[in-house]
Design a protein that fits this description.
Shape: elongated
Largest sheet: 5 strands, antiparallel
Distance between the termini: 105 Å
Radius of gyration: 32 Å
Oligomer: single chain
Strand order of the largest sheet: 10-9-8-5-11
Length: 295
């Protein structure tokens, strides 16, 4: 069936309707999407943290806060790797980390103010500059997980590893500004107790609190230095518990349970003999390098 031709008025109305439809389609396609509209468009143009890090070098760890909040308010599962507890634990691991004299006393006092010398202590913080999602202060010296991400949780909640991190951040005990309890003076209330704990170390002798179990059967030679070319000072039997004072690097030992060039300076409590044994034959709770300082 043939339809009648539209009148001129009807044709004008049809063209107008088609024009309005085209404008609407173009307008919709030109509208900004939610990801680029309004204030968000300006936010998207701001450099990301990674871009900012590339534009300027990161400040040294010593310039970053070690702890952000006040004293710790909670605790994680216990990961203590030494025998002492409380303030004596702090004194031992601080000494093993390298603190000496007045910096050692200050280190212990700061740890008491920060965590009550609880290696599992944790404090939660809200957003701060550079840490918009909040952060956690962890362990004895409450090492912050945002400002010091290289100190992972395993290290932060392990007594000796936390002390080693505190030693590095404080530049060997010469700079305590990164700690909030030092800046607000709270640590000063623990100085007397810290001094007493340091005195209990025994006149500055290396503390003996970290232990290991001998895995070599039937016995393991104790050497005068970190290698098999050194003289034999004595021996220790399989299964014996020895005290570990520190570690060092020496001859690579390919045998044992975890071949390495790490050697432990030990004392055999049964004989009193002190010397070096290959760490590959000594079983410890954690990597010995996170539990004691370097010889």
């Amino acid at each position: 069936m043939r339809l009648p031709l539209p009148t001129p008025a009807a044709r004008r109305a049809l063209r107008l309707a088609l024009g309005l439809t085209l404008v609407a389609v173009v307008g919709v396609s030109a509208m900004p999407t939610p990801a680029t509209a309004g204030p968000a468009a300006h936010a998207a143009k701001a450099p990301r943290p990674a871009d900012q890090a590339k534009a300027a070098p990161r400040p040294a760890d010593q310039a970053k806060p070690a702890s952000v909040g006040g004293p710790a308010t909670g605790a994680k599962a216990n990961r203590v790797g030494v025998n002492a507890v409380g303030i004596d634990l702090c004194a031992q691991v601080a000494y093993a980390a390298g603190f000496r004299n007045n910096p050692l006393v200050t280190a212990v006092a700061v740890a008491m103010a920060e965590s009550s010398c609880n290696p599992s202590a944790v404090g939660s913080n809200g957003p701060t500059a550079g840490c918009p999602n909040g952060s956690l202060d962890r362990g004895l010296w409450q090492i912050n997980n945002c400002y010091h991400p290289t100190v992972n949780d395993t290290c932060a909640y392990t007594a000796q590893c936390n002390a080693n991190a505190a030693y590095n951040i404080s530049s060997g005990g010469s700079n305590w500004q990164p700690w909030s309890t030092y800046n607000n003076g709270a640590y000063a209330g623990y100085l007397s107790a810290a001094q007493a704990a340091v005195a209990r170390l025994g006149g500055g002798n290396p503390p003996v609190g970290v232990t290991g179990t001998i895995l070599a059967n039937p016995s393991l030679n104790i050497r005068t230095g970190p290698g098999t070319t050194y003289g034999i000072a004595g021996s220790v039997n399989y299964g014996a518990t020895v005290n570990i004072a520190c570690y060092t690097f020496g001859e690579y030992v390919s045998g044992g349970y975890w071949p390495s060039s790490t050697w432990d300076r030990i004392t055999n409590p049964a004989t009193g003999v002190t010397g070096y044994v290959a760490d590959t034959w000594v079983n410890t709770t954690y990597d010995v390098k996170t539990m004691v300082g370097r010889c």
